[in-house]
Amino acid sequence: MNTQTRPAAWAVLATALLALPALAGPWIPPAGTGTLRPALRLYRADRDFPATRFGTALPPGTTSTSEQQLKVTGLRGLGGGWALSYDLRAARIRKTKTKKQVSSTASASGLQDQVVGLVRGLRQGDGGGVGAGEGFADALALNLALPAGSATSNPQLGTGHLAIEPDYLAGARFRLGHRPAYASVSVGPRVFFNSHVTQWRATLDAGARLTKRVGGYGNLFWVRTFGIDGALAGGLDPNASEQYNLLRAGVGLQWALSPQVRPRIGYEADLRGRSTHAGRRLVLALALRY
Questions:
Q1: What pLDDT digit, counting tens, does each position of 153-187 carry?
Q2: Which residues sit opposite 89 in a β-bridge?
Q3: Among positive and negative, which fits the CA dihedral 157, 144, 201, 254?
Q4: What are phi and psi of 6, to 5 degrees?
Q5: Are 191 and 165 in contact (CB under 8 A)?
Q6: Of 37, 155, 179, 190, which shows the fewest CB atoms inside 10 Å?
Q7: Helix, strand, coil % (nearest 5) of the chain?
Q8: Count of alpha carbons within 13 Å of 254, Cβ hemisphere only?
Q9: pLDDT tens-digit profile of 205-232?
């Protein structure tokens, strides 16, 4: 590669680092193109959050939980400002309980609840689409959470309830000095059918290019349950219950092998919560564009 073509090539790589950081971000890809992100998520928790208040983790108890989850998220442009989004999951979950120095373990494997939806782009900044330039974008999404996970296994793999989730998505691509950067947010309720429970959920993602090929990112996830009186059912896995509150933070790095392929590694920790586990997660992912 000669010196005249090198700057243009690095510009393409820099743009690739910023493409669609969230599951269904506000940037709508052109028809027939999109993003795909398979990820292996390794979670472990040996503490719980309080059942009666939103707070920090309690001291280690008698129960520990581990999960190996395969998660595939994606966004595919349909044309006309529309896109299809999906969040598909399967996992193996193990729970170990120790009482009087005797341990018992229960495990379950299989599909978990699946989320599919449609996203409609509104304002799309400078041209919109995958790899678009700087500017503000927003969109509306309507998702269905399908109860594909077993609610009778031990441990449970799903909630057993269908849910609908309308979201508002907004984001911006900009520069921090000479470094391309992005920030995006999604917020909306998840309303469960056949129960009196509504969760409000919000996700904040932000990132920037650190070197020519390496980018850093961070995220916050918040969920708050409404419609429940008194204490929530304690010690339930979020994959198997709609009755919990949680604040989770994560950081990570991604490396641009090419404009289409970006390996990612991340670490997430549950900071505060109510009626769920307090754990940590290692995330190994591959972000693909097509």
A1: 888 888 888 999 999 999 999 998 889 999 999 99
A2: 71
A3: positive
A4: -60, -45
A5: yes
A6: 179
A7: 5, 60, 35
A8: 31
A9: 999 999 989 999 999 999 998 876 544 4
Select from 105, 64, 47, 108 the least CA-distant residue to 240.
Answer: 108
Tokens of 163: 């849910």
Taking the whole predicted model, whether its pTM rises above 0.70 is answered as: yes
Which residues have C-beta within 8 Å of that of residue 187, sequence separation ≥ 6? 167, 168, 200, 201, 202, 203
- Which residue, among 280, 241, 253, has the nearest Cα to 161 in the 3D structure? 241
Residue 20 falls in which region: left (phi positive, over 0), alpha (psi -120 to 50) or beta: left
Please count the CA atoms within 13 angstroms of the CA of 94 that sit on its side-chain side.
9
Helices (H), the chain: 6-16
Which residues of the chain, if any, have pLDDT below 70?
1-24, 126-133, 228-241
Q: What is the DSSP letter of 251?
A: E
Task: Decide if 264 contacts 250 (C-beta within 8 A).
Answer: no
Both tokens assigned to 270: 């549950």
The residues pairing with 278 across neighbouring beta strands, listed in sequence order, are 47
- CA–CA separation, 265 vs 253, rounded Å? 6
Strand ranges inside 100-229, DSSP E: 102-111, 114-124, 135-146, 163-176, 179-192, 198-209, 214-226
Query: Cα(34)–Cα(16) distance, rounded to whole angstroms?
Result: 12
Q: Residue 62 and residue 154: Cα distance in Å, rounded?
A: 17
Cα separation, 267 vs 219, whole angstroms? 10
